[in-house]
# Entry
Amino acid sequence: MFWRITACHRDWLANLPPEIRSPVTVQLATGNGERIIAALGMVKLAALKPTQVERFLRQMAADGYSTSVISATRRVLVRAIHRAERDGLVARNVAKLADCPRARAACPGR
# Structure
């Protein structure tokens, strides 16, 4: 079975860890996941490379997302892949290996 990022995220979202209870947190995780799916959803989980994750995160920075949103999105991907890793669907969590970029300052000079 070849899982794609879409299935990986949907599985994680359907089986959220117990510490994620707040409706706001669930909504944020869902929104971050939708960004992940839009960019990487069709990639086979086992074929995903750290450089692909980094490219996606850099594109988020270029699109104007804040550092905190980029980091939160990466954390969602890390957690979703961790579940797949735990279940033996992937050998390593490439999202953990990917560097998270810093977004540009909203106002130059700050």
